[in-house]
Amino acid sequence: MKREELTHYLDDLLESARYRDYCPNGLQVEGRDEVRRIVAGVSASQALIDAAIARGADALLVHHGWFWRGEDGRVTGVRKARLQSLLKHDINLIAYHLPLDGHVEFGNNAQLASHLGWTVEGRFGEQDMGWYGRLLKPASLAELTQGVAEKLQRQPQVIGDAVRQVCRVAWCSGGAQSLFEQAVTLGIDAYLCGEISEQNVHLARESGVAYIAAGHHATERGGIRAVAAHLVQQFGIACEFVDIDNPV
């Protein structure tokens, strides 16, 4: 399919225009016009670019692209090497950040709920990035943590009483520590996101709401993987998800 056809379809599918974001969404680096093979992944690192080159990809589709607000805009060092690799092999870079967190079906948070078997009740926070709901049946924090570790294949960092019963949960993929205080006001028993900051530990202890830091990368694999599978089904195009492991 044509590059413009692909990017316009993804822009519409993920409703990218409705988000105020910290980076440009959609096509970030222009490559060849015809797209026959796509490699998808979480972050546009050199390792993922190398994987795309090795597979003869025409486009790289990611959640974490480039050109972040406040970032040094000079193309030197690592930035030069990454960009040079894409341009040399004429590979398109297509990225969706907040649209791929918030989408009602393909977003990271929707995929977390589906993967973990949680019932969605509503959304909260700026641009409705946070989600809340409940477990299918109550479980202890230890049982919940074990289930999260098995599903996300990563042992989370947990602050809270292991024997406490958890019924209601809130979650937001990636670096969503700042939503924890709002989540506590929802009357939840536990909050899950990708990372944890120093002040979150104290709030968890003092509020009694457990905090589960399940990994930024681990909580954001679901969205890009779901979009990749959708493109295969919708267009019959070759689209392979490549997981470049990240312990954070």
General description of the model:
By secondary structure, the protein is α/β, with parallel strands linked by helices. The chain folds into two domains: about 5-95, 3-Layer(aba) Sandwich (Udp-n-acetylmuramoylalanyl-d-glutamate--2,6- Diaminopimelate Ligase, Chain: A, domain 1); about 100-215, Udp-n-acetylmuramoylalanyl-d-glutamate--2,6- Diaminopimelate Ligase, Chain: A, domain 1 (3-Layer(aba) Sandwich), CATH 3.40.1390. The chain has helices at about 5-15, 45-55, 75-90, 100, 110-115, 140-150, 180-185, 200-205, 215-220, 220-235, and strands spanning about 25-30, 35-45, 60-65, 90-95, 120-125, 130-140, 155-160, 165-170, 190-195, 210-215, 240. Strands 5-6-8-9-10-7 form a six-stranded mixed beta sheet, with helices on both faces. The chain has a five-stranded mixed beta sheet with strand order 1-4-3-2-11, sandwiched between helices. It is elongated. The model has no long low-confidence stretch (mean pLDDT about 100).
Q: Which range best describes the helical content: under 10%, 10-25%, 25-40%, 40-55%, 55-70% or over 70%?
A: 25-40%
Q: What is the CATH homology-level superfamily of the largest domain?
A: NIF3 (NGG1p interacting factor 3)-like
Overall structural domain count: 2
Q: Mind describing the biggest β-sheet?
A: 6 strands, mixed
- CATH topology-level fold name of the largest domain: Udp-n-acetylmuramoylalanyl-d-glutamate--2,6- Diaminopimelate Ligase, Chain: A, domain 1
Structural class determined from secondary elements: alpha/beta
Strand order of the largest sheet: 5-6-8-9-10-7
Task: State the helix count.
Answer: 10
> What is the typical, i.e. mean, pLDDT?
98
The first-level CATH class name of the largest domain = Alpha Beta
Radius of gyration: 19 Å
Low-confidence stretches: none
Q: Tell me, what's the shape?
A: elongated
Q: Helix and strand string, N-terminal first?
A: HEEHEHEHHEEHEEHEHEHHE
In total, how many beta strands? Answer: 11
How large is the share of residues in beta strands?
25-35%
- Amino- and carboxy-terminal Cα gap: 35 Å
